[in-house]
Design goal:
Blueprint: H1 3-12, E1 18-19, E2 42-44, H2 49-62, E3 66-69, E4 86-89, E5 96-100, E6 105-109, H3 114-122, E7 126-127, H4 140-146, H5 153-156, E8 163-169, E9 175-178, H6 192-195, E10 204-211, E11 213-214, H7 229-243
Parallel strand pairs: 2-4, 3-4
Antiparallel strand pairs: 1-2, 5-6, 6-10, 7-11, 8-9, 8-10
């Protein structure tokens, strides 16, 4: 990757969206354990889907690889850049664009922290049930790319069970408009399932339509300390029999 490529990249994209040299903070090439990799030549921070499309189209034409980053909360170093890669950081695409309680859907950009979505729908008396310890820093795009499970998976399922539609940009810059916002959808192949859990290999998620639910009016918490896994399974079966889908976690 030459300096001329970086210059052309800066000219091709929105002013101020490209970081180079000393402007690149260490968080873009360190993991949570503090182990660094080589600093990337550039970090691109798009604000819109069109920005993401322009970057990927440009990098494909120039044959420059790209690594996408969200909240950088992963522990397997999957979001760290290899040498000579461009970092695509979603940190500026953080808008919750819509909360529609009549349809039970919220639309958010991929860089939105999970807790931001939870808090926003909570203002309407609703909840987005995906929940995990990194809620304050992980992003919904990262949750989608890894098909995160979380604390309420027994009742609400994995991330893929909470996604109604996705907007995705493929490696050549093509924007796939699949941001459907309805549960009933029998219009053909469910393309969004290809991208959920694919960790960015097939495309970059830019926006998502999420299922939201009325927040429970009260919760009862019980701690069950059991001596064996066999008894854990037994208690779970008994709880499901008597409580049905009202169990959040166990």
């Amino acid at each position: 990757m030459t300096d001329s490529f970086i210059d052309r990249l800066c000219k091709a994209l929105r002013k101020g969206s490209v970081l180079t040299g000393t402007d690149i903070a260490s968080r873009y090439y360190h993991d949570l354990a503090g182990k660094p990799v080589t600093q990337p030549r550039a970090v691109v921070r798009p604000r819109t889907t069109e920005d993401v499309s322009s970057l990927l189209r440009f990098c494909q034409r120039e044959k420059v690889p790209v690594t996408t980053q969200g909240g950088m909360t992963g522990l397997v170093r999957g979001a760290l850049p290899n040498p000579h890669e461009i970092v695509l950081s979603m940190e500026l695409m953080t808008a919750v664009e819509e909360v529609d309680i009549s349809s039970g859907v919220a639309v958010a950009q991929a860089g939105t922290p999970l807790q931001t979505i939870q808090d926003r729908v909570g203002q309407e008396g609703y909840m987005f049930p995906l929940d995990l310890g990194a809620r304050g820093s992980c992003t919904i795009g990262g949750n989608i790319s890894t098909n995160a499970g979380g604390n309420r998976v027994i009742r609400y399922g994995m991330t893929r069970d909470l996604i109604l539609g996705l907007e995705v940009v493929t490696a050549d810059g093509t924007v796939l408009q699949g941001l459907r916002k309805y549960i009933k959808n029998n219009t053909g192949i469910d393309l969004k399932q290809l991208f959920i859990g694919s960790e960015g290999v097939l495309g970059v998620v830019t926006r998502a339509a999420l299922r939201i639910f009325p927040a429970p009016r009260e919760r009862q918490v019980a701690l069950c300390a059991l001596p064996s896994f066999t008894q854990v399974i037994s208690v779970l079966g008994m709880a499901r029999k008597h409580l049905g889908r009202r169990i959040d976690s166990i």
